[in-house]
Each structure stands twice: as structure tokens, then as C-alpha cells.
Specification:
Length: about 170
């Protein structure tokens, strides 16, 4: 079944590139989620006055890539204990979060989040909330690292090819 989930994990350029590598991910789109204004621009979000966080909308086939597995991958590239900071990116617009429209996803989300928190030995800084709003980012932010291979990314470049290593076992 096709599902959609919204993942915030710091700068959306790297998270989108990372997620695009997995079988079962059908489409990704960068945007701004759960803020106070309508149709914010990148500059407005970056100012930290809108309350939005950089987010990747992920459409995926959960028969190929179950929600729990997708979230396991997500947790491989974020620091779930860091508040409003991933890598060198700092501010409320870089907070981490898992946002959903379908409440049926909440069981799988909570299972993974609780497991990660248990391993960490403390509560996570990752928001788990219903999606309030999502606005697609400007075109130049879509697939940014495909268009700009040397562009900035807080995610270790080796992680962009981890799916190949996982498939080989």
C-alpha cells in the first residue's frame, strides 16, 4: 500500500538524497512543515520566524519498504538527541520530526521511536506529531544534491550508498 510520511532531519538536501536510494521509496519532495505561516519562502523559514522545519515528504510502498524499516534508515542519519541542531545546521528550522497524516502509521512510528529511546537511555528530541501543514520548497531545493553533487550536506557521504551495502548483506 502506498503511504506518505514527512521526515525532518536537519537540512533537507541530504535527507532527500539519502532516502531516494531505497527500494520502495516512490517519490520525495522537500518542503517546510508544521509552521505558522502559509507558503513560506526559504528565506522566511531560515529566519526562524515562521516555525517551519525543513522536511522531506516521502511517498513509499510499505509492502516493499515497511514504515518501521524506513524509520530505521532515517535514524541512521540523524542525531535523535540533539535539539534544533543537525551537523552544523542550527535553529528551529532544523529540528527533527516525524509527521503523519494517517494515524494508522502511529503504531509503527511509536515502536521505532521507543526502541531508539530505549537504546539511548533517555527521551528523544524527535517530534512525533500529526502533520499540520506542508509547503513544497522552491524548485532549486528539489533533488539539490543531484543537481549540485559537491553541495553542502551534513550527512556522511558514505551513507548515500548504504543501500548497496545493505542489499549485498
Amino acid at each position: 500500500m502506498i503511504q506518505t510520511i514527512y521526515l525532518a532531519g536537519g537540512c533537507f538536501w541530504g535527507l532527500q538524497k539519502f532516502l531516494d536510494q531505497f527500494d520502495g521509496v516512490l517519490e520525495t519532495e522537500t518542503g517546510y512543515a508544521n509552521g505558522r505561516t502559509i507558503k513560506p519562502t526559504y528565506e522566511e523559514v531560515k529566519s526562524q520566524r515562521t516555525g517551519h522545519t525543513e522536511t522531506v515528504k516521502v511517498a513509499y510502498d510499505d509492502d516493499v519498504l515497511p514504515t518501521g524499516q524506513l524509520l530505521d534508515y532515517y535514524f541512521m542519519v540523524i542525531d535523535p538527541l540533539s535539539v534544533n541542531k543537525q551537523g552544523e545546521d542550527e535553529g528551529i528550522n532544523y529540528r527533527t520530526g516525524i509527521y503523519y497524516e494517517d494515524p494508522a502509521l502511529l503504531t509503527d512510528i511509536r515502536k521505532v521511536v521507543n526502541h531508539v529511546a530505549e537504546k539511548a537511555g533517555r527521551p528523544l528530541a524527535v517530534e512525533v506529531r500529526p502533520l499540520q501543514n506542508f509547503f513544497t520548497a522552491e524548485e532549486y531545493h528539489q533533488k539539490y544534491l543531484d543537481k549540485n553533487p559537491g553541495g553542502y550536506c551534513h550527512i556522511n557521504p558514505a551513507m548515500m550508498h548504504i543501500h548497496e551495502r545493505i542489499k549485498k548483506g
